[in-house]
Each structure stands twice: as C-alpha cells, then as structure tokens.
Amino acid sequence: MKIPRAHALAIRGLCVHAALLSTLLMATLDARAGTLAFSDYCNSEGKNCSIQYSGRIVKTDIEKLRKALKDAESRPNFNRQIHLNSKGGDLNAALEIGKLIRTHDLTTVVLDECFSSCVIAFAGGVWRSAVVEAFGVPFAKIGIHRPFSTGQATSVAERRKEFGILAELVKTFLREGGVSERLWEDMVRIPPEHMRLLSQEEALDYGLVGKDPAYADYVDSQEARRYGLSKTEYLKRKAMLKELCDSDLQVLSDRTGKSLARCREDVFRGRFP
Questions:
Q1: Bridge partners (DSSP) listed for residue 24
Q2: In the beta sheet, which residues pair with residue 11?
Q3: What SS3 class is residue 169?
C-alpha cells in the first residue's frame, strides 16, 4: 500500500498539521497497472453487468472510476457491483475509491484475490461478498499486512506520527462502514514481507463481509414503506423468508410454479404460500 505526501489531514473534525507523509507500499507489488472499466461481464442474457477492477491500485484510478460509474449508471443492465482483483497499491487511492463505492451504494465482490490496500477499497461496499461458490471457490483470497515506507523519515518519532495519522484515516473509514477497527489493528501486526489470508469466519467477525449495517437498516425502512408495513411487521415477515422461500429454487418452481422472487413478494404482500 502507499499513501502520498500530504501537508494537512482532517481527522474527526480536527485539522492536523503534520510532516509530509512518506510513501507507503505493499510488500508484493502487482506489475500490472490498474484496469478499470464497465465490462462485458454480464449473464447469458446480457443483464447484470458489473464494473471490473483488476491490477495495481493507482491514483489515476479514482477518476477512471468516476467515469466508469457515470457510464454504468446510464445503462439499465448495471447491477451496481464492482468486482475487485488486486494485490494492492496506493492506499490513498484505495481510500478514495472506497469512498466513491460507498457514496454510490455499490456492492463489492472479490472473485479471486484482494490483498493489502485492495481490502480498504473492498470495505467501501454497502454489501461485501467474497463467497463465490457459483465459480467453484468457497471463499476468495483476502490478504492483509502492514504497509511499509520507502521514504526517509528523519526519526522514529516522525514515522510514528505518520502511522498515527494513517491509522485514524483508515479506522474512521472502516468504522463508518460498519467494519471493525480491529481489522486495521491486526493488519499492522503482520510484517510487510508476509501476508495473512483471512478465513471466512475472520472476515465475518471483522464485519468485512456482509452488509453495511446503516445501509441495511435504510433499505429495510424503504422496503417497509414500499409495502405499507410498519418496520416491526416488515422485519417479522422478512424473518419468515428463509423458511418459506429460501428452498432450492428449482424445487420451489416445480412444486408451486412460483419463482423465488415471487415467493418473497407474496410474503411481504401477506399472500403466504
């Protein structure tokens, strides 16, 4: 991961005037430059197209993502997903990309690997997935380690200040998305020459995979309003979905002639199967 030099950073509403931040890089750099585009990765019917992002994360990717989002959101087949495949790169860029992802309410998906600063971008998703059983992968590779500096700090105190500023930036970003600050704390304990792969259980425990709690609650409120239900009644019916609808789709269709989506709609409309 790397973070470019900056003269001042706003942290929790306070203006922090600090020495220039040294360049921080991930231990294993991907030689490819970042590639970012609204891709032809769609289903067989040409629907559910996503934004694909692979390679090393660089600063110019921020503007590329803005343009890709403008293009994607003008198309009816955009599924509001961004698929990540990166070994990391520029940490500041990853933070900005994560913020863009969060602002646009995108789902982040890792189909192969997401290491180092890529994990920060991944955390920007309002719904974060790394379980890709449809592709024969039970859980994608998510790896963390501590960033290291290629700059020349004049003292240990200066380097400690830099890491303190960096920690506040990253932890604030994680916390706002419902991800535990422990992720950063554990990240900096892994030497930069090593990589710790997270298990599915660890990723769940950090809150790294799953839904952003604030976004999930917002969606529940919107859906309750759409169905004309109180929030309490909506959540009660939502809890019934697993028992009534989340059986095998083919079996459900064969037995009732209904699709899974139709079953869910019926439950919320009070037409219980």
A1: 149
A2: 14
A3: helix
Give the count of beta carbons closer than 10 Å to the beta carbon of residue 81.
19
Query: Tens digits of per-residue pLDDT, 78-120?
Result: 889 999 999 998 888 899 999 999 999 999 999 889 999 999 9
Domain borders along the chain are 8-211, 227-269
- Give the distance, in angstroms, between the CA of residue 31 and the centroid of all CA atoms in the same chain: 23
Chain-wide mean pLDDT for the chain? 80
- What topology is assigned to 8-211 in CATH? 2-enoyl-CoA Hydratase; Chain A, domain 1 (3.90.226)
Q: Are strands 35-38 and 49-54 parallel, antiparallel or unpaired?
A: antiparallel
Residue indicated by tokens 């602002």: 103
Q: Measured between alpha carbons, how far is 69 from 61 in angstroms, rounded to an integer?
A: 12
pLDDT tens digit string along 204-216? 999 999 999 999 9
Tell me which of 21 and 50 has the higher pLDDT.
Answer: 50
